[in-house]
Hints:
Layout: H1 2-9, E1 20-21, E2 29-30, H2 31-45, H3 78-91, H4 106-118, H5 134-152, H6 158-171, H7 189-204, H8 211-224, H9 245-248, H10 258-269, H11 276-287, H12 299-312, H13 314-328, H14 349-369
Helix pairs in contact: 1-5, 2-14, 3-4, 3-5, 3-14, 5-6, 5-7, 6-7, 7-8, 7-10, 8-10, 10-11, 10-12, 12-13, 12-14, 13-14
Amino acid sequence: MRMLLLLLVVPLAACAKHTTSVVEGQTPVRETDAAIRRGLAWLAAHHDVGRGRFDAKGFMKHDRETDRCDGAGNPLYDVGVTGLATLAFLAAGHTDRGTAEENPHAKSVRQALRFLIEVQDPEGCFGHRRTVAFMYNHAIATLAMCEAYGRTRNPRYLKPAQDGIAFILAAQNPGAGWRYEPRGRESDTSVTAWCVSALDAARRSGLAVPPQAFADAVAWVDKMTDPNSGRVGYNYPGGSSARYEAVHVRFPAERTDAMTAAGMWIRFLADAGEGDAIAKGTKLCLKNPPAWGEGTTDVYYWYFGTLAFSRIGGEACRAWNAKLLEAVGPKQLTGGARAGSWDPIDPWGLHEGGRIYMTAMLTLCLEEAGR
């Protein structure tokens, strides 16, 4: 039954090329599998299991005083990074069930989901609304709750998932997508991608989602797509990704095709994954593949790119995944408190999500590329 549920709720991506490493006295293991295990182990070791949250700013309190991680994030995004870490565990097959021997991360998953349920308000919104970008927190938490319900059928997660989806549906701008305020008359491709991901997880888990919600999201992406280049804009056609002013110089928005990748993913989830827009988007992203370096590291882009290429498949998917593994693998840290994590040196990890965000997102990338 567990494998059946996994097949029902996880989009397959069988295009990745894997490398192996041989440890003396052991059988060969895939490098991606080992990196995923290390990433999950680091997340588990820095989880506030008692409270259930992943503490974006203070996670290093779990380290020894003589060996503490850096990379604090913004505590306003604890709900979002808790959702991302939960998704990373779920994607590796770790639910809230099983003994410690069978599932060493069951307690982390169970407590993280409990935290998300506790911070859901009567309107169905996960987390507070004190940050302008609270819809990110909500959409990611809803995605995690829907995935948890789909994988376990645990009734404890059904109502929180349904209520979270209801909030997303009520927040959508008619004929378009989502942004920072529910029905605020403005949309952007980034928030829309997370909301559509949550709706897709709900639909795959058996929850009712009106088809019009997907159709309206595609209408927004169509509006944001430059017909000549295929580039998808953040909030105007063919435009660049968003950046905080503090990081724009270090991480130029024109060096990423994150919104194009997110736009393709939205199209695939809405069963609109064919045609000229996908062909042009594929070409753009392959010209700008994952590459770790100053100004080029962008795990948000890599996450949606890896998801999109999992649907594109074939040689294009293999080429993208090869570049992803080449960029990510050598940068996973070894030794000390940071072992298994990645340094938060991208536009959203640097000041917002921190090391929790960076490690959860890259673990998710490897999990998708490694299917």
